[in-house]
Protein 1
Amino acid sequence: MSPLFKIFAACCTCLLACSGVGGFAPSIDIPATTTEPPPTTPDPATLPYFLHHLNATNVTVSRGKAAILDCQVFRLRDRTVSWVRRQGDSIQLLTIGSSTYQNNGRYQLEVEEPNTWRLVVTAAEESDRGHYECQVSSHPPKIKRVHLQVYVPRLEIFDARGEAIQEKFYEVGSSIDLRCDAFHVPRDAVVWSRGGAVVYHSPETGISVETTSGAQGPVSWLRVKAASTADSGNYSCSAAEAEPATVRIQVLEGDTSAAMQHSTNSSSAAHRAVHASVSTIIRLLSLSLVLWVRC
């Protein structure tokens, strides 16, 4: 056998061995493959939800009253309920589970099984205004937003011309007309008094007290017909939980009343004149500065 034939035979044998014909093919380790289970989507029928499916509510309360923020959760199961207060980008944790995380005692948690988690802000102040959230530790988390508005009751007295007053002069025989605008107080809560004594509606004595409903609260009128010097004094309009508004009324004889009224008007006119003069000077200085810059 020639050497060339031997080489050819050896090549054929190698090819047959590699193809697996007439022999065993070499084993190859194939890496094992694992199949991740597809992500599961929570069944909506198992997720918690809030009462009436409301995710946002508003609560309004007067200053000094308790603000009650309700959160009723259904299908809670083993999940946790938390209350937080959101102020801009910061979040303040108030409660988690049945624990309260504030030491000032103004935030209280009331839990009524099986689904009520109530946050109570005692003696609400203006600083308590803002957004609160009831959060449920589900996936995705459930959040109910509550906006708390705290109103401050306020009273202000005006004369018949609609000008806010703290003192007013009347001539003997004229009519005293005072109007009290009450903001965020009940209609029946407004009371007029003079020198600490309540003033009642008494048409037979020429005193009239009438209260109507205004845009932001009650409007109460006090009218005294044919006023005399005995009607002078401090008149106050008051209501529960509001600072009283007081005006000093002076009923004077004709000449004295005119002189006092003229003095008051002259003082007001002088004040307005001074204010106008200052404004004029400021405008002239501004104009001079502009001209100087242009030059």
Protein 2
Amino acid sequence: MNIKIETLSSFIAAAEYGSFSAAARQLNKTQAAVSLTIQNFEIDLGFQVFDRSSKCPRLTEKGEHVLKNAKIMMAQYQTFLERSLSIYHMNDVKIKVGIDPLVCNDKILSIIKRLSSDLPNIELFIMQQNSKRLAEEIKAKNLDIALGIFDHENKINLEYTQAFNINVSWVATQSYLDKFNDGATTLSYQDFCQQRLLIPASLDSLPFEEAKAALQLWHVEDIHTILSLCREDIGICCLPDFVLQHDLKNELVKKLNLSFSKITSNVWSASLIYPIGSQLSPAIHWLQGQFTEIESF
């Protein structure tokens, strides 16, 4: 069975206008052409869709069901044409974006959701890796743009735009503090350096330069693994507040107060990077604008 769109158009027109002649006028065809098209349609289906026993053809019971399905098919075909036309006018059909999990909170997810409605025909590829890996993928031109926490070395030979700041905290469990700091949440620099520090693997140079004086420094790839290790009293950790929100609210961990001045920064700076000299497509410009309008979190 090979039913063409023109056949469905003739059938729907005949059903809606009540006669083959009226359908022919509407479609700018001859009555004979419409009548022959519908006859061949019925042959393909194996049953009649019109009762021709009266002056004007009337839909049979099976014809009524066919009409409903034909209208659905034509609506889908029209949607296909509209989307194909919009794709024809697009400069980019597929965009590749990298996002470090350290910056991927609900605000970022909300932007991705808006992208699906504002640019519905875009095919989106998202890579979630640490910032160091994302910078390598940008340099290899495997990504169009990446959002993360990039140090100076990772920005070399790349374009970058400041995006937003992320509030972070050092935390530990109360049982860990009871065991190693007499229960106190304030740490001196000497006390701090005697702890086992759990930090994201990609941030070994920024913003933890002073932390290298610690006796034990664990670099862990996955942020949720860092938090799990902290819950198990393995050490103290530093993570974004949006990652710690649930544990802080339920008092599974406590915020630490660092009494020294060397590591007082409680924010990390997120940036966008992309290949140097690249012409950003409209979709990438849209994402860039959305990400840089985010307020600190």
Protein 3
Amino acid sequence: MDDWAEYTNPLGVLRDFGLSCLGAGEQADATAGFESRHLDSHALVIITSGSGSYRDRRTGAAGIAVHAPAILSITPGTEHGYAPDAAGWSESWLLVTGSGVQPYTRLGLFDRTRPVLPLRELPALGTEFAELRAALGAADPIAPFAASALCHRILVAVAASIRPADPTAAAARATAAFVESATLEISMDERARRLGLGIAELREAVRTVTGSTPIELLVQSRIRMARQLLVDTELPVSRIAELVGYADAAYFSRLFARRTGVSPSRHRAQFTRGRTTA
């Protein structure tokens, strides 16, 4: 691993509507760290070998021990410090900003209460950092977009490495049964009861498997079923609404439009083969 660091200014459209990379780098056998640092962006540091410690106001002076493979997940405005131990560590890092950061918090990244996360294994990354180095150093109008895409790939790989390899069998079974019964017009308490769970247990099972909430998973499942029925059948929208669990067809149509960006009839026209889109 070569030691390198590249920085760039944020591209407005990516910052406002996506993910903008502000910098990245790699360092082998680093022996120095940071003290009392504040960042204006989100930072992800992947510790690939070695050990050290991390500190912020929540951890106190004792800090948190860091042992590779692990990540440091740092949020804007958080005063923090970190450093390898005397033997040093190797790290890869990136700085990102923009509205596109927020979805990754649902996958466990950039949670100020969990700045140090052990990894199950090193992320499945190949040439992403080498490509990111080239993109950040390029004077090409497409380079910021390439850098953004590479950051997404890195963040997804890291998120996959901090989550359990497989959710518990019980949580997976409960979540699958929950999805199968998504079309039933029953309360969330009743859904949990039929699964032999309390509402808190249902919430935890769904979160473990999907990273989402039961109500969000319920809506996603119903909309997914509705989209398929709209394309595969000629049933009226009101009947499809009933089949996926909504007695009020008008409410269903509004919800469908909010979730997909188009009305049910528009979705049918766009994705049914042989139809002409008006």
Protein 4
Amino acid sequence: MSNSSTRATPRVRKTKHIAFKPVDDGIRPADAIQAQIRGMISSRTLKAGDRLPSERDLAEQFSVSRNSVRQALRSLTDSGLLDVKKGASGGAFIRDGGGDAVRAGLGDLYSLGTIQPTHLTEARLLIGVEIVRLACERRTDEELEELEANVRAAKAAVQAGDVKRRTQVNLEFYQVLARMTHNPLLEIITDAVLAMTQRFVEEFMRTTDATVMPFRYKLLADLKAQDADAAAEKMREHLLRLQKIYLAEATARSRPRSRPARTSAPR
């Protein structure tokens, strides 16, 4: 789900002249600052590309220390809402809408073991089937051409024996499908799931092309015909097959290796 899709850089606006309210006593300053900035983003008072006032100006408006402002800006940056740039033209900018925080958060849960391979493959199955159904209904001709180009790139990687490139292109296939839904939430969720899937594949195993490429060609035909039921069934069968392969490998890896039996020393 790392994100390999390219996002356009948001248009940088001038510093917003906004009157923030002083922080009330009894509330942690950094939390209160975050709440006000989040509220202005939610109300569209602050938009992607807007630059916040300087750290000193923010401290004066909120009636807090500059250290409290730094803590708040750092937390908002970690959450994916701000992009802090250095230099004369730098500052704290409202980020364009993206799912970096979601991908990072779910990736951390995967690293910690909260999200197990069973959870990952199950979620991928449920999401993938519904995404391809929507993709059939909403895709444009240009998006279909993009998916066909992806399949050609995968075939070229297979012929070149470039396993790493093949894996990357194969995962991008699902990102293109998610974009066909024209639903940004599904795109973000798909990116997060694929980022975890890529880590799993690199750690445990890579599947062969015996069934992957034929599946892609058949799915393309259904997408061209906009046959949502047929495409959804093919995706379900394909992801169930991958789930079985991945979980079998994960189970095998998790088993403790048996030690060879000790032989008695000759007496």
